[in-house]
TrEMBL record:
Keywords: Membrane, Transmembrane, Transmembrane helix. It is found in: Membrane. Residues 1-124, 135-262 form the EamA domain. Its main location: membrane. Coiled coil: none annotated. This is DMT family transporter.
Length: 275
């Protein structure tokens, strides 16, 4: 999970460097790289790429495409730290959807934790007039569909190879985003190609290590580790882009992460009591 957080952070940095290209095009290129790498890995492992629980794998791919597209859109238009803090709401939506999809109960106090995290987003937006509401909404949409995608990963737990789960994203994203990109195409030049390749590689590494973590351990045990990503994001914002966040950003970060981690600890306690 720590390796995943680092690789995701480097991927986000690549996306930021490519802000002059349409986000749909970046999702398309990222999908091609992931498609090729996934097929190579699966062939060497002797694993059938289409997997077993294909209905849930297809849904994981569709939800993942919507989540990543929305995230790239916010990432190109907001500071990295702001974009990923909004995306950090995804575990809350994961828990919310798990009530119906994975049949995991949710205690009343967990709704309070959900409200706490959402209050963090309101603080960030309310005290930063330069943040456009459309980007905030896109970020929340990304978190919602990421939550759905994580639930689909839970549905295939123990039945499909981690790379098969990853493979379904580019399998669905490549044709869809390829067609969409034709309407907004801008040809990358020079160093763009190398950054695009790096973006794809870092994303693949992040997805595979994250999927292995989710499938190998209970979510409440490993999910908090992903939040070290905010440290990387704040560092990139300050050292590379010269962005210094005000107090409301740090308060918002604290509220979002506090709500999410409190919910995870509550789930751990519930699981222990059940056991």
């Amino acid at each position: 999970m720590l390796i995943s957080a680092l690789c995701f952070s480097l991927m986000q940095l690549c996306v930021k460097f490519l802000s002059h290209l349409p986000f749909t095009e970046l999702v398309f290129f990222r999908s091609i790289v992931s498609l090729v790498l996934s097929l190579i890995i699966l062939k060497r492992a002797g694993v059938h790429p289409l997997g077993n629980k294909r209905k849930y794998l297809v849904l994981r791919g569709i939800f993942g495409v919507i989540a990543l597209s929305s995230f790239f859109f916010t990432l190109q238009n907001l500071p990295i730290a702001t974009a990923i803090v909004i995306q950090y709401l995804s575990p809350m939506f994961t828990a919310l959807f798990a009530i119906w999809i994975l049949k995991e109960p949710m205690k009343p106090i967990q709704w309070l934790f959900f409200a706490l995290s959402f209050a963090g987003i309101i603080v960030i937006k309310g005290f930063n007039d330069d943040i456009d509401l459309i980007y905030m909404i896109a970020g929340v949409v990304s978190a919602v569909f990421a939550g759905l995608a994580y639930n689909m990963i839970g549905k295939v737990k123990g039945s499909d190879h981690p790379v098969v789960v990853v493979f379904y994203f580019p399998l669905i994203a490549t044709p869809i985003m390829g067609v969409v990109s034709l309407f907004y195409w801008e040809t990358p030049v020079g160093w763009d190609w190398l950054i695009i390749l790096a973006m794809g590689i870092f994303t693949q590494l992040a997805q595979v290590t994250m999927t292995k973590a989710w499938q190998a351990e209970e979510a409440n045990q490993i999910a908090p580790l992903k939040y070290v990503g905010i440290i990387f994001a704040l560092f990139w914002d300050y050292s590379i882009f010269g962005i210094s966040h005000n107090w409301s950003m740090f308060v918002g970060i604290g509220l979002v992460i506090s709500g999410v981690v409190a919910n995870l600890l509550m789930k751990k306690r519930l699981n222990r009591n059940t056991a």
